C-alpha cells in the first residue's frame, strides 16, 4: 500500500492510492482520507492504481464523500481503476459520487 500526496496546478490536494482499497488496510486508508479532506478544501482522489476494492473500500469512499460534504469541502475522484469502477457501478453509485468515470482508450471495447 502506497500513498502519494501532491498539490495540483489549481491548488487542490491530490492523494494517489496504490494497492488495495480493502478491509485489510481500512484503518490506514481512513486516516489518510480524513486527514486529506480536513486539510484541503479541494481534495482529489486518484484511484487509478487500485488493483482490488471490496465493500470496505466502498464504505471508505462513501465516508470520505460524507465527511467532505459536512465540512463544505470538495471531494473529486479523478482516476478510476477497473476494480473501482466495477464496485461503484455494482452499487449503482456513480451519480452519488458525481465524478465522470473515465475509461482509458485501451480498455474500451
Rg of Cα set: 13 Å
- End-to-end Cα distance, whole Å, is 30 Å
Q: Count the E strands.
A: 4
Q: In percent terms, what proportion of residues is strand? A: 25-35%
Task: Give the overall average pLDDT.
Answer: 91
Topology order in helix (H) and strand (E) letters: EEHEHEHH
How many distinct helices? Answer: 4
- The level of helicity is 40-55%
- Return residue spans where pLDDT drops below 50 for at least 5 consecutive residues: none
Helix/strand/pairing category: alpha/beta
> Biggest β-sheet: count, sense, barrel?
4 strands, mixed
Enumerate the strands of the largest sheet in spatial order, edge to edge or round the barrel.
1-2-3-4
| Global geometry | globular
Description:
The protein is α/β, with parallel strands linked by helices. It has four helices and four strands; from the N terminus they run E-E-H-E-H-E-H-H. Strands 1-2-3-4 form a four-stranded mixed beta sheet, with helices on one face. The protein starts with a strand and ends in a 12-residue tail after the last helix.
